[in-house]
């Protein structure tokens, strides 16, 4: 009964200050739209300078291979000087240089060298662009050998099979990751300030003189925000499938169960911050620094965890989003792989228990 | 001036506030600097070699000896592949068929199958590129040994400004912008709301201070804290992570000052419209999170759809990313960065004017 009253009070508070509703429902839609389209690692139409120092049939066939590729927007130039200038002023991301003796070189047994220069500032992008250039080159070689009936001497050929995401669409792994980040934000933001607010406004003392127990206070805070958070989650999943076309290979109920666990961990963390900080400025600052930034960088959302140095890998185990992202990417793209889902779910359960238990301990009915 | 001092004291008198403003950014630059890299090391892979000849072992050795790969198991049956990849134990499986050595000796192209876990498409693509490089090298070796002619044209690739393509050189300077933005916007966006909640803002308004002066008083602490933190992080970038600083420090700080100016403008703007601290925090979040993700910090702006590319034009961090990376890696001169400087100044100015106007409006 008392609990129901508290929940009712919390709901009324949520309804009065629409910022909580905005956090739960508008934020996921807004962020998912913006980031789902905005965050992409697939480079297309990369501007590139193609220097043909001498124009002839060979350079023309090479250039047309670039023109046909959807990855490149080649600009044909005739000397290296212009190309370097374009690279320096960031008009192009790379240079492919066919020297004057390109045609002659092609007819030598040693072959003609093609000089490739990329702007390496964005190393990841540069590497992908180099890979694409290699692809165009390999395709051109094949065409040339067919046209000239000269067999290509490539002893070992590679046949590539990409599982789960055969077109290598980066959106398919970024959108599930984004859901985890957005849920981290919602879960923590919703709860990070509520306890601190009660302390600052002095209503916590008022609550203490009533017969409600601490457990009831915490549950009274948790249940409304859990419902709000799950609403946001359902919205995000619907958008991921409906709007962004991410395939859902696993089952919805696994997704639902994992999200509940994660949400409890996130809400618990928010609650803990709020209980310890007792001050909205500190709570807010901690929430953004301790949740969003680590979830963004240390969770495996973009950066591969196994490539990090060992001490940093150890730190990532403390980030709840890490487990949730592993589950989301697997459930969305690979299916219900229990050997991935169960250990990660167990970790989430542990973290939820830890944070909630600790906030319970820290928030005794006591004035300082 | 007394107002600036008071703001500082309000911000720093509480020990917890002091700690959250200064300690996490320093720790984070260290942790994130190591964590935020797209470079793959120790890619876990498995070998399924049905051929088991000397020549296929040589190909295996190419992977075994590479610092990018780490062999986790050798498998003997086809159906062992799936569980390894499903469980994420192996990112890549190299499958050498039983015909491999026979095809090679008879001059037919021998086919090697590579199976990659595509759940993270970026990692998958990079792992595949590394594998292809090893196999290309192996092909060159074979050709040299057998004296066959190579392809009619070969690529010779080089990367400028970052010859080893270390993504850390790209990410760590970005972290300077990231952390500076977070701290400055948070410090300024909650400053007015806090006084409103405590009721001291009305008292401030009845003093002879003009709104411009109040605004200045609120802006300066954020500016000083932001500059100090950015300086520390820049020092860490240069001396700890050894990222080369090729350009001039004056250019860098011109960019930094303008960036702080715009970030403070946004923070004060948020502060002036929010009544409670919760709203201030929400506003700060709603600005900071998109500003970071859509700044080109991790994923290139050029990959975004045109509509979103246009939205990023009002994001001050986008310009600062170009400035800091240009100055650090390319040594870009001052004059070439003017195109990045003025938008930050305009964004800051617009927001400050708006914030000042909101202050005055609240009076009546």
Task: Provide a descriptive summary of the structure in words.
The complex is a heterodimer of chains A (368) and B (364). Chain A is α/β, with parallel strands linked by helices. In chain A, 51% of the residues are buried. In chain A, helix 3 (57-68) links the parallel strand 1 (46-52) and strand 2. Chain A has helices spanning 2-16, 19-38, 57-68, 80-88, 102-106, 123-148, 171-192, 194-201, 203-208, 214-242, 252-277, 280-297, 310-316, 320-334, 338-362, and strands spanning 46-52, 72-77, 94-98, 112-119, 156-163. By secondary structure, chain B is of the alpha/beta class. Chain B folds into 2 domains: 2-36 and 166-363, no CATH class; 43-146, abc type-2 transporter like fold. In chain B, strands 2-1-3-4 form a 4-stranded mixed β-sheet. The radius of gyration of chain B is 28 Å and the shape is elongated. The two termini of chain B are 26 Å apart. Chains A and B meet through helix 2, helix 5, strand 4, helix 6 and strand 5 of A and helix 2, helix 4, strand 4, helix 6 and strand 5 of B. Strand 4 of chain A pairs parallel with strand 5 of chain B, so a sheet runs across the interface.
Give the topology.
The complex is a heterodimer of chains A (368) and B (364).
Chain A (H helix, E strand, L loop, with lengths): L1 H15 L2 H20 L7 E7 L4 H12 L3 E6 L2 H9 L5 E5 L3 H5 L5 E8 L3 H26 L7 E8 L7 H22 L1 H8 L1 H6 L5 H29 L9 H26 L2 H18 L12 H7 L3 H15 L3 H25 L6
Helix pairs in contact in A: 1-10, 2-7, 2-10, 3-6, 7-10, 7-11, 7-12, 7-14, 8-11, 10-11, 11-12, 11-14, 11-15, 14-15
Chain B lengths: L1 H11 L2 H21 L7 E7 L4 H11 L4 E6 L6 H6 L5 E5 L3 H6 L4 E8 L3 H26 L6 E8 L6 H23 L1 H8 L1 H7 L4 H30 L8 H25 L3 H17 L12 H6 L4 H15 L7 H26 L1
Parallel strand pairs in B: 1-2, 1-3
Antiparallel strand pairs in B: 3-4
Helix pairs in contact in B: 1-10, 2-7, 2-10, 3-6, 7-10, 7-11, 7-12, 7-14, 10-11, 11-12, 11-14, 11-15, 14-15
